[in-house]
Structure formats: C-alpha cells, structure tokens
Design a protein that fits this description.
5 helices, globular
Length: 172
C-alpha cells in the first residue's frame, strides 16, 4: 500500500452531528478546532445546519450542514456529492448516527427493529461506500470510524477502501 498523507485542506463528514447532546456534535467541533472543514449531517437538517453555523463562527473553518437519512441510498449519494462540491477533499468520516429502541425486546415491532438496523448498520455501510470512492480518487489517505461498542465492532466487517490505512485490531 502506498503511504499518503492528509492534504492541508481537508474535510471530515460527521453523521449524527445535529444532536444537542451527542458525540457527533462534539467530534465535529473537535475536528474543526484542529483545522478540518466539517460536513455535519443529521436526519434533522435544521439542527445540522445550525451546528455547521456554530462551527464556522467558533472555529473559523468551512462547514456544511444538511439533512441526510443514512438509511436511504439516494439521500446519502446526494448529500455526499454536495459535500464534495462545497468543501475541500473529503478524507475523513465519522459514522456517529445511531438509534436505539426504548422498548422491551419482546415488545419491539418488526418496523422498529428495521429502523434500528437501517440507521445503525445499513447507514454505516451506505455512507462509507461513497467516501471510499472519494478516497480512491483523492491524492490522500482516508479514514473512517464508527461509534460502536468493541463487541459490535469486532463482529462487523472492516471496510477495505483502496487508500484507507489498516484499522488496528479491537481489544475488548
């Protein structure tokens, strides 16, 4: 594998970044504080746009906020294309969007189960795919991370993008 470095101007896409108390919002701010342009996406487009505005004002970096349904291939494709047009090269991805069910397991409906899987599993897959495509054409390495427990991360397949550095083995 060819060793590549991040470009001076670079973008990270953060899913689930619109939540007022979420990991995605905090991570988006942290990346911006380190000089990254940040694309904040969330099922709540108004919240994502608001966080992007906060980031631009507070950190002086370029930021983009939009509604993205991570479980919908068309939504993902459209928003990633807009991010690639609006911001520097997309080389970082944080799959933070996630939902859980407050319902006792025995009472979970099939529709509720499908919603959890669409966001937590299918969404991670759908968002990572176009980012891998962007990394394979960029002159830099790309990275991806997901907010999942070590147990679920160990069971999930590791994305093998053409330019992504290998992910260290999880312990736990």
């Amino acid at each position: 594998m060819t060793s590549r470095s991040f470009p001076a101007e670079r973008t990270a896409l953060v899913t689930g970044g619109g939540s007022a108390r979420g990991i995605g919002r905090a991570l988006a701010h942290r990346l911006a504080a380190q000089g990254w342009a940040v694309a904040v996406v969330d099922i709540d487009g108004d919240a994502a746009a608001s966080v992007a505005g906060e980031i631009a004002a507070e950190h002086g970096v370029r930021a983009f906020g939009a509604r993205m349904d991570v479980g919908d291939p068309a939504s993902v494709r459209d928003v990633v294309a807009k991010v690639e047009q609006a911001l520097p090269p997309l080389v970082g991805l944080a799959n933070i969007a996630g939902v859980s069910s407050p319902t006792e397991f025995g009472d979970v409906t099939v529709a509720e189960w499908d919603r959890v899987l669409d966001v937590n599993l299918r969404g991670t897959f759908l968002v990572t795919r176009p980012c891998c495509a962007a990394w394979s054409t960029a002159a830099s390495a790309g990275w991806s991370t997901s907010a999942r427990s070590p147990r679920s991360a160990a069971a999930a397949p590791t994305p093998r993008c053409p330019t992504a550095p290998p992910r260290p083995a999880s312990s736990g």
